[in-house]
Amino acid sequence: MRYIRYKALGVLFFIIPACICLLPACIKDLCAATVCQNGGICVNGQCTCPAGYEGVDCSNKWNEKFAGDWQASDNFLKDSLHRFYTIHISQDTARDSFYISGFADTLNGIQCVRNSLYKFAFRPDQKIDSILTIKSGNGTMDADGRKVTGMYSFQRKDTIITSSFTWAR
To answer: What's the CATH fold of domain 66-168?
Structure first.
């Protein structure tokens, strides 16, 4: 009886440490086949991208989805004025921003900066021309990338005017 007890204890002292040592070898490395670009880090088999990059493998710049021509419309909140024009968005060299050409039918470019995956803000206090200054603004792209909506405020001489906008592809 004593012999059986010692044998059982011996087996337990062998099996338990063996299981503890071999168990990690049974756990699958979820990141073994995952390659993340641009400094992304694999966590549980999925890439976590640094600011300014997105996509399954972090290979897309955030600002790429905004690039191109858009049909813009502004609706001024204090009156019924509705304006239509075309804008062109180009990627900035910084991956967290982009430039708008032709904004509000002006020649000067306007810079926008990233807030989150689909949201951006107008860089404040940008001079559009000799009498107009963008004071603030923000926009949100819909999930399918075909429409952007938002609001901005600009100053014309001593008056601040707010407008909602829609951009469509």
So the answer is: Lipocalin (2.40.128)
